[in-house]
Amino acid sequence: MKLLMLCREPRLYSCVRLQEAALESGHQMDILDPNRCILQLPHQGSPRLYYQAVEAQEYQPLPHYDGVIPRFGTTSTEMGCRVLRYFETLGTTILNGSQAFALARDKWQSLQLLHQHQLPVPTTTLGGNEVSAELISQNIGSPAILKTLAGAQGIGVMLMPENSSTTSVLETLKHANIPVLAQQFISEAKGDDLRCFVIGNRVISAMERQGKLGEFRANFHRGGSAVPATLTAQEQQLAIKAAQVIGLDVAGVDIIRTHQGPMILEVNASPGLELIEKTSKLDIALQMIVYLEKKITSAATSE
Fold it and tell me: With a threshold of 0.85, does the pTM exceed it?
């Protein structure tokens, strides 16, 4: 099979591992930066997609691909999803389609959909530009977590110890026209969370991520560490259901353990592989490729 991975940084661990797994499985895999793609709607004929390689003076049409894996970051979400939609119009099999990918990248919309399906999430507030920041901070209480809508790897996440600091930051971000949601801080979690790696209808692996001393974020890129985790049946079902509600084939579902039971913090459409593979000792990249193979084969036989 000929596969494509949309990724801006091909040297990242996750991209390297996925390409290795594809090649070891006997497939070809190209890695392209979605921001170097050119989409065209001609006056007559079908939509077209071209690619301009780094330093190239001309752009080239792309070949046929059997399957596509999106691995682009938050700064490439809009263009990346447009490229995914192009492949969807061709009937190409995608591992995490454009609609689900874009939904997962919007923290508020994804939480809103999870809540609509009666899945537990922390109390979360989003206010418009004309809403009093002081009113929001009083509503959520202190301490509070502030999150920009499109951050990743712990970027754009802030812990506000007092209502006054919450109000101050909300006011600043409001004037900068940066939407931000306020979320209750779960003190009993002590900065730890569960990352559940879901492929299809199974939790392949889970780990407990632990924030470094003095850090409330448990993300690997913020210096966090991890140990293997044993999930309860409830936590497993919660992770699987969350991925299904968002519409993802592959997801990193972050769950926090609270006195009220497990709650979903976030559903990640492009979960990193480095920490989960090193913690679990599993070849998760290969399992993703195998799942994509089966999805491609299933789509071909149903035509």
Answer: yes
> At 131, which amino acid appears?
V
Which residues line the annotated binding site? Answer: 147, 184-185, 193, 217-219, 254, 266, 268
Positions at the binding site for ATP: 147, 184-185, 193, 217-219
Residues in the annotated binding site for Mn(2+): 254, 266, 268
Question: What's 211's DSSP letter?
Answer: P
Residue with the two structure tokens 């709650």: 263
**Domains with residue ranges and CATH for the chain:** 2-96+287-301 (3.40.50.20), 104-116+188-269 (3.30.470.20), 124-185 (3.30.1490.20)
The low-confidence residues of the chain, meaning pLDDT below 50, are 217-222
Tell me how far apart the alpha carbons of residues 120 and 117 are, in angstroms, rounded to a whole number.
Answer: 9
**DSSP codes of every residue in 91-157:** T-EESS-HHHHHHHH-HHHHHHHHHHTT-----EEE--TTS-HHHHHHHH-SSEEEEETT--TTTTE
The predicted-structure confidence for 174-218, as pLDDT tens digits, reads as follows 777 777 888 888 888 777 899 999 999 999 999 999 866 555 544
Which residues carry a binding-site annotation for Mg(2+)?
Answer: 254, 266, 268
What angle is formed at CA 242 by the lines to CA 227 and CA 116, rounded to 5 degrees? 140
* Residue 273: DSSP 8-state: S
Give the β-pairing of 225-228 and 250-258.
unpaired
Cα 211 to Cα 126, 132, 239: the distances in Å are 26, 32, 21
